[in-house]
Amino acid sequence: MSHSLSYMPHLDALRAFAVVAVMYSHWTPKTYHFNVPWGTMGVQLFFVLSGYLITRILLNALHGTPVRTDAFYTIRNFIVRRALRIFPAYYALLLFSYFRGYWPFVESIHWHVFYLSNFYFFSRQDFAGPASHLWSLSVEEQYYLVWPWVTLLPVTLMLRVAGCVVAVSFATYVGVCFLAPSLNLIGLLPIPAFMGISAGSVLAILKFEQSKHLPIVLQASFGCGLAFVLLIAIDSAELWKHPLMFVLIRTSMILSFVWLVDRGTGEFSGVFGRICSNRGLQRCGELSYGLYLYHLLAPQLVRTVFRSLSISLELHSGIVGFACNTVCTFVIAWLSWHLIEAPMNRLKVYFPYQKESSVVKSRG
């Protein structure tokens, strides 16, 4: 069967919400978070979106046409296309930050160069300032290196693998809660961190197969969303101290995003649908990679400007600082898109997912 890879604008709106949640988390005091894990929500929504989209692309290229395709050709070009999309802006950030002398980059540049930031932060059991967010990009890159080869399996077996990863990830979290409760940042390591991306992959496979189990999965996902809201609404210091509370919140949140992304593949209805149809919000989603990549660099630059103009740094901790960070991040992301990302993206035309002969046969 042939599956269309049409543009889904409401997924770009979800990307916008995800990156705004991350920026809000990193730029505001926890007093204003109201028990909501904004940063974790944003990152995990990105993960589910990423897992869904890359699996959808690979399924369509490898299993979506009646003509047998060259699997190695498809996977090689998939990896090249991801590199063209991700590497240029990423390494531009590393080079700039390293030569500007920002301490976390100077101290740990070799970890970031090889997309091992998540292992670096786990080994030191702490994040490192403006480089902290790079762990999630490392996790995605590690998934991109492994998952394409899994898609060579029959689709039903792919589904089992993705489902097993979600289950093993949950079991890992629970095991750590009881066996090593003092161990921090376990969610940065590949298997635990793959829960969200694999959940997105499960959704893509079920939709590709038009599985009869999809409605059941979506109902369960919606139920997880309700559980997530109830859990974060609990205002109990004793409960929040228990590591299992964190696991339940994280898992229910991730699984609820499966329902959200599924709805976003069509169009949301009502007021939320009108919001997601806003072109400005969708444009923000299109710039989300740059916004995420540079959002911790922006405060460094804003502080530098404040110092050079002899403006009190106390202003940077308030609404003025938030506004300056926002403007700075959007300007850098816009420049990055037009000067780095878009030109490199245009090179993707030389790396199609299928050979021309296969495309012509499938159409014939």
Summarize this, please?
The chain is mostly helical. Helices cover 74% and strands 0% of the residues.
Describe this structure in words.
- The chain is mainly alpha-helical.
- The chain has one domain (9-363).
- The chain has 17 helices and no strands.
- It has helices at 9-27, 38-63, 71-100, 103-113, 117-124, 134-150, 155-179, 190-208, 214-233, 237-241, 243-264, 270-276, 279-286, 288-294, 298-308, 319-345, 356-363.
- The longest helix is centred in the first third of the chain and has 30 residues, at 71-100.
- The mean pLDDT is 91.
Layout of helices and strands:
Blueprint (H helix, E strand, L loop, with lengths): L8 H19 L10 H26 L7 H30 L2 H11 L3 H8 L9 H17 L4 H25 L10 H19 L5 H20 L3 H5 L1 H22 L5 H7 L2 H8 L1 H7 L3 H11 L10 H27 L10 H8 L1
Helix pairs in contact: 1-2, 1-13, 1-14, 2-6, 2-8, 2-11, 3-4, 3-6, 3-14, 3-16, 5-6, 6-8, 7-8, 7-11, 8-11, 9-11, 14-16, 15-16
**Count of spatially separate domains:** 1
Overall average pLDDT: 91
Backbone structural class: mainly alpha
The total of helices stands at: 17
Distance between the termini: 14 Å
Largest sheet: none
What is the tally of beta strands? 0
Radius of gyration: 21 Å
Secondary-structure element string: HHHHHHHHHHHHHHHHH
- Helix content class: over 70%
Q: Based on CA inertia axes, which overall geometry fits? A: globular
The portion of residues forming beta strands comes to under 5%
Poorly predicted runs of 5 or more residues: none
List keywords for this structure.
17 helices; 364 residues; single chain; mainly alpha
